[in-house]
TrEMBL record:
InterPro entries: ClpS_core (IPR003769), Ribosomal_bL12_C/ClpS-like (IPR014719). This is Adaptor protein ClpS core domain-containing protein. Transmembrane segments: none annotated. It comes from the Bacteria. GO terms for biological process: protein catabolic process. Residues 22-83 form the Adaptor protein ClpS core domain.
Length: 91
């Protein structure tokens, strides 16, 4: 086995270990579309269009994954959503 093949194999193994989590935003009867959109732009670094689409999905489907990544990146973002009065969780 060449060193190039061995390096590629090790890289593939490391990539498989990285776990992706999701922030899921849940619908509520309290927050306005504007508040949800502004909060997603701030907390999740969404574009206005992304945030609006997520708000619509949450409204009609009841929930929407708004951010995917490593837990350590998602935790402070989810905290910002919760502090803003939104209903969110990391799964």
């Amino acid at each position: 086995m060449s060193s190039k093949e061995k390096t590629s194999e090790e890289l593939l193994l490391k990539e498989a270990v990285v776990t992706q989590n999701e922030i899921v935003l849940h619908n509520d009867d309290v927050n306005t579309f504007d508040h949800v959109i502004e909060t997603l732009i701030h907390a999740c670094e969404h574009t206005a269009e992304q945030a609006e689409q997520c708000a619509i999905l949450v409204h009609y489907k009841g929930r929407c994954t708004v951010k995917t990544g490593e837990y350590k990146d998602l935790k402070p973002r989810c905290s910002m959503l919760l502090e803003a009065g939104l209903s969110a969780e990391i799964i």
